[in-house]
Design a protein that fits this description.
The chain is α/β, with parallel strands linked by helices and 535 residues long. It contains 24 helices and ten strands. Helix 1 links the parallel strand 1 and strand 2.
Length: 535
C-alpha cells in the first residue's frame, strides 16, 4: 500500500477528502494533511509519502514553491496539483516543474478515483522496474567478481596510486570515502590435514549466505574474496566510530560462525584502524601476520597481537630445541607464499634460534625441513627431486647461520607454488564439470551456485572464486548468457509466446525475463523478434 499526504487550505475540502474518499480501496494509506505548504513541509520530510496532493494557491507557501522543494528532496514522490479554472495557467507552470497530474475544483469522487488509479499504476510499474533491477544486481554482483578480486589485490599490494584507487573503486561502486578504515580477514580453510580442494558443506554454504546477507545490508562494510576460502572486509568509519563498527562486525561474524563451530573451521584477524588509502598494504600484512597464528593454534578463532606476543614469550621461555613437524605439514598444506616468513618466525623459539648458530644444528634443521617438504610432495604424488633444485641435498650440507632460514623459506615457497598448481589442475577439471552441468541444466529455474557446487562436491565460495578467476565472468553472468542465447534462438525460430520462452530458458517470471533480455540486447523480446524478422 502506498502513502498519500494532502495539503489544502480550505478546511471543508480537506476534511471532506480525508473522510469521504476510500483511500485504502485505491491502495493508499492517508498519512497526514496540512493547511499550507509551510506547515506541510516538515511533516512531508518526516513521512516521505509516495503521493502529495496539494492546492496550488495557499497562504505562507503555495503549491508551486512546495512542489519545487519536494521534487528536489523527494524526487520519487508523485505530486498532484489541485486548482480552479482561473488557476489553469498557474497549474501549467506546476506541470512544467514535474508534477504528475492536476485536479480541477470542484473535486468529484470519480475524478479523484481516476487520478489515484493512474498514479498507483505508475508507482506499480516504477517499483516493478526497481524490484527487477535489485534482483538483477543481487544475482549478478557476486562478491567473487573478478574485477573486485583484482582491485583488492592491487589495493593491498600497493601497486596503485591513491588517485587510481579512488578512480577504480568508484568504477566498481565501492566508494572508499571514509576518514578511517580497518581490514578484517576471515578464513574458512579447514586445517585438518586433508590438503585438498574444499568439499561441499551445506553448513558452510548456509553460513556464507547468512554472512553475505548481513554484509549486503551494511554500507559501512565492503567484502572481497581474499583467498579461495577466505574473505577480506574493509570497514569504513570515522575517528569515533571505526572501533565500534569493527567490533560489531566481529561480534556478528562470531555469532553466526559459532552456530556451526562443530562443522566449520573459522579464523579471523583485523589490521587495526588506518587513516590513509596508502596504508592498506601494511594493514593487510599486519592482519595476515595475526591470522598466521592459526597454524600454531588451529583450535583458536580470533587472533590479535596478544597471540603473536604469547608465541614470542613461549619461544623465549622455551629451553628445548624442538621443531613440531606436524605444524610444518599443516602449514605446507594450507598456506600462501606470503605467509612463509611469518610462520618461520613463529615456529622457531629462542633456544632453537640460538642453536642455529651451530653449523651442525643448521644442517640438522635444514635436513628436517627438507624431509618434511619431501614427504608432503610425495603426498601430492610429486617427485621432490624434480620440484626442488637438483642439488638440494648438497645445499642442505652447505647451510650456515645466515643461509639456513632463507633456504628453508625457498623450499616452502616452491612446495606451496606446486601445491597450488596441482590443485589448479584439479580445479580446472571441476570447473569443466560445473560448466557442463550449467550447460545441461540452465533451463531449470531453480539452478543456482549452491546446487552446482553440491553436484560436483566443492564449496560454493571456492566454485564462485574459481569461476571468476578462470572464466573472467561470474557464475550468474555465465548462466544468464546461456539462457539469453537460447531465448534469442527461440524468438527467431519459433512462434512461441514470450511467457513460454521465459519458462523454457529458466525464468518463472516472464516480466523479469523481459527485463533481463532488454538489459542484455537493448530490446524487449517482442521488439527483437519484430526487428530481426522484419530485416
Amino acid at each position: 500500500m502506498y502513502s498519500v499526504f494532502l495539503v489544502e487550505d480550505e478546511i471543508v475540502i480537506r476534511d471532506g477528502l480525508k473522510v469521504s474518499f476510500p483511500w485504502e480501496q485505491y491502495g493508499f494509506a492517508y498519512v497526514g494533511d496540512a493547511a499550507d505548504g509551510e506547515m506541510a513541509l516538515p511533516q512531508i520530510r518526516q513521512t516521505k509519502p509516495d503521493v502529495i496532493i496539494t492546492d496550488i494557491r495557499m497562504p505562507f507557501m503555495d503549491g508551486i514553491a512546495l512542489s519545487k522543494i519536494i521534487k528536489k528532496e523527494l524526487p520519487n514522490s508523485r505530486i498532484i496539483i489541485i486548482s480552479g479554472f482561473d488557476d489553469f495557467s498557474y497549474a501549467q507552470e506546476a506541470i512544467s516543474i514535474g508534477v504528475d497530474n492536476y485536479l480541477l475544483k470542484p473535486i468529484t469522487k470519480d475524478k479523484l478515483g481516476e487520478v489515484m488509479s493512474d498514479v498507483r499504476e505508475k508507482l506499480d510499474k516504477e517499483n516493478e522496474k526497481d524490484n527487477y533491477l535489485e534482483q538483477f544486481k543481487a544475482e549478478s554482483q557476486e562478491y567473487e567478481q573478478f574485477a573486485r578480486v583484482r582491485f583488492f589485490n592491487q589495493l593491498v599490494g600497493g601497486t596503485m596510486s591513491v588517485s587510481e584507487v579512488f578512480e577504480k573503486s568508484e568504477e566498481l561502486g565501492l566508494f572508499l570515502d571514509a576518514t578511517h578504515y580497518n581490514l578484517v580477514l576471515l578464513d574458512f580453510t579447514p586445517l585438518n590435514g586433508s590438503g585438498s580442494t574444499p568439499i561441499f558443506s551445506k553448513h558452510r554454504a548456509r553460513l556464507s549466505d547468512q554472512l553475505m546477507q548481513y554484509l549486503k545490508c551494511c554500507p559501512e562494510y565492503i567484502v572481497f574474496h581474499w583467498s579461495l576460502e577466505g574473505y577480506a572486509i574493509i570497514v569504513k568509519g570515522d575517528e569515533h566510530s571505526i572501533v565500534e563498527l569493527t567490533n560489531t562486525l566481529i561480534e556478528n561474524i562470531q555469532r553466526r560462525c559459532i552456530v556451526y563451530e562443530d562443522e566449520i573451521n573459522w579464523y579471523l584477524a583485523e589490521s587495526g584502524p588506518i587513516t590513509r588509502i596508502s596504508e592498506f598494504a601494511a594493514a593487510c600484512s599486519h592482519a595476515s601476520k595475526r591470522l598466521g597464528c592459526r597454524y600454531m593454534n588451529p583450535s583458536g578463532h580470533i587472533f590479535t597481537d596478544n597471540d603473536i606476543e604469547a608465541i614470542r614469550i613461549n619461544n623465549e621461555e622455551s629451553e628445548t630445541v624442538s621443531i613440531d613437524q606436524r605444524l610444518v605439514s599443516l602449514f605446507l598444506e594450507n598456506a600462501e607464499e606470503s605467509e612463509v616468513d611469518g610462520f618461520l618466525e613463529n615456529l622457531i623459539n629462542k633456544t632453537t634460534k640460538n642453536s642455529l648458530k651451530s653449523i651442525i644444528f643448521c644442517k640438522y634443521f635444514a635436513m628436517t625441513m627438507y624431509m618434511c617438504v619431501s614427504d608432503y610432495l610425495r603426498k601430492l604424488s610429486l617427485n621432490p627431486y624434480t620440484i626442488l633444485e637438483s642439488d638440494a641435498r648438497t645445499q642442505v650440507e652447505m647451510v650456515d647461520e645466515n643461509t639456513v632460514l632463507p633456504y628453508v623459506a625457498s623450499m616452502f615457497r616452491a612446495v606451496i607454488s606446486n601445491r597450488k598448481n596441482e590443485f589448479g589442475k584439479q580445479s580446472k577439471s571441476q570447473l569443466s564439470e560445473a560448466i557442463k552441468y550449467v550447460d545441461e541444466h540452465y533451463q531449470d529455474s531453480n539452478l543456482c551456485l549452491n546446487q552446482v557446487a553440491k553436484e560436483i562436491n566443492i564449496s560454493p565460495s571456492y566454485l564462485s572464486a574459481m569461476f571468476s578467476k578462470e572464466n573472467k565472468t561470474t557464475f550468474v553472468e555465465y548462466m544468464t548468457t546461456k539462457r539469453m542465447e537460447h531465448a534469442k534462438k527461440m524468438l527467431l525460430t519459433t512462434g512461441e509466446k514470450s511467457q513460454t520462452i521465459a519458462e523454457q530458458v529458466g525464468y518463472k517470471d516472464p516480466h523479469y525475463f523481459s527485463y533481463i533480455f532488454k538489459k542484455t540486447y537493448g530490446l524487449s523480446p517482442k521488439e527483437f523478434r519484430t526487428k530481426e524478422r522484419g530485416a
